[in-house]
């Protein structure tokens, strides 16, 4: 019976060792967009990114023109680096604008 216990213990150690190696293995490199900026032009907010890879989009929070309605969130389409994402965003009612990346 002792022989079986040693084998089971050895198998457990080997299995745990194999599981510890898996997270250490590197996957493919990925770089999110960088050098991103936000722009405003009357009722349009834009985002553009000049470096990295992946996609970005503009996100705009603004207050509705009817009191009591609250905050509206506008999302631009996902665009690759080098292209511009834009969404409706009235400049006089903006509460927050930022670039979202993936």
Mind sketching the topology for me?
Elements: H1 2-24, E1 34-41, E2 44-51, E3 55-63, E4 71-75, E5 79-80, E6 84-88, E7 94-101
Antiparallel strand pairs: 1-2, 2-6, 3-4, 3-5, 3-7
Features:
Secreted protein, 23% helix, 102 residues
Architecture of one domain in CATH?
Sandwich
How many alpha or pi helices?
A: 1
Q: Rough shape?
A: elongated
Poorly predicted residue ranges: 16-27
Mean pLDDT: 82
Series of secondary-structure elements, N-terminal to C-terminal: HEEEEEEE
Q: What is the first-to-last residue Cα distance?
A: 55 Å
The class by helix and strand makeup works out as: alpha+beta
How much strand content do the residues show? 35-45%
CATH topology of one domain: Immunoglobulin-like
**Over all CA atoms, what is the radius of gyration?**
25 Å
Share of residues in helices: 10-25%
């Amino acid at each position: 019976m002792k022989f079986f216990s040693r084998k089971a213990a050895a198998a457990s150690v080997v299995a745990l060792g194999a599981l510890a190696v898996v997270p250490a293995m590197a996957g493919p490199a990925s770089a999110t967009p960088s050098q991103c900026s936000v722009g405003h032009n009357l009722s349009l907010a834009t985002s553009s990114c000049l470096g990295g890879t992946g996609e970005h989009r503009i996100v705009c929070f603004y207050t509705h023109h009817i009191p009591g309605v609250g905050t509206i969130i506008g999302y631009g389409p996902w665009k690759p680096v080098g292209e511009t994402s834009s969404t409706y965003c009235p400049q006089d009612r903006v509460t927050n604008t930022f670039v979202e990346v993936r």
